[in-house]
Amino acid sequence: MAFRQALQLAACGLAGGSAAVLFSAVVVGKPRAGGDAEPRPAEPPAWAGGARPGPGVWDPNWDRREPLSLINVRKKNVESGEEELASKLDHYKAKATRHIFLIRHSQYHVDGSLEKDRTLTPLGREQAELTGLRLASLGLKFNKIVHSSMTRAIETTDIISRHLPGVCKVSTDLLREGAPIEPDPPVSHWKPEAVQYYEDGARIEAAFRNYIHRADARQEEDSYEIFICHANVIRYIVCSIPPLLSAGAFVLLGS
Q1: 178 vs 71, which has greater pLDDT?
Q2: Which parts of the sequence are annotated with region: Disordered (predicted)?
Q3: Do residues 180 and 209 make contact, with C-beta atoms less than 8 angstroms apart?
Q4: Which of 21, 157, 213, 231 has an alpha carbon 20 to 30 Å from 240's alpha carbon atom?
């Protein structure tokens, strides 16, 4: 079952304002109760044009880090056979779990003419304070905070980070708000130009590929990472992993 549990979700209501989602990446190769599923042939790479899993079918190589897909099985030693394959699989299997907290920025002044003028409201600052307190109360050793480079995300990060001393902060343009995909059905109050979907979609997909994946095989200990960004970015990330949504793997951590 480890193949089907590559990423497990829990919804977190933190501080009544800053919405948050927790992703717990249960990595392939990390022992689970009942044992792992038997290894199966790797899915063909996307560029090869081979058949891909259909809708509703879990793709074990969703992050292109499936151990079996990283091994050239055609070159395995004929004499050692399965023993060598198992040894190579162990080398590529992740040994740790990544816990990823996705947090939307707090309430901000939407009437600012420039992006730098869209600062947090008094309520938004209170929301961020409470979110920081809630995160600190979890007693976890957070590794880093990665945040959008937009003003409202920076201010939310600065307030939250006061409650998590020593945790490094990293700013990135990849997590900036945008229009990753055209809404279906359409909405009347939000109609970006077609070129915006084209540009923002590629950028936010790059953020997904860069940040949402199972732990690297070289990672020895579990990690706890906070990502502070925007509603559309979080929606895109969550909706990019539909098998987990249908599995109903959600847990409320409190508000």
Answers
A1: 178
A2: 32-58
A3: no
A4: 157
CA angle 222, 209, 243 (to 5 degrees): 80
Single out the residue of 103, 104, 107 nearest to residue 122, CA to CA.
107
Hey, is 168 helix, strand or coil? Answer: strand
Phi, psi of 148, rounded to the nearest 5 degrees: -65, 150
Q: What is the DSSP string of 79-123?
A: TTTHHHHHHHHHHHS--S-EEEEEEE---B-TT-SSGGG-PBPHH
**Element (DSSP H or E) covering residue 237:** helix 231-239
Q: Where is average pLDDT lowest: 170-174, 190-194, 200-204?
A: 190-194
Tokens of 83: 């023993």
pTM, entire model:
0.77
Output phi, psi for 60, to 5 deg. Answer: -65, -15
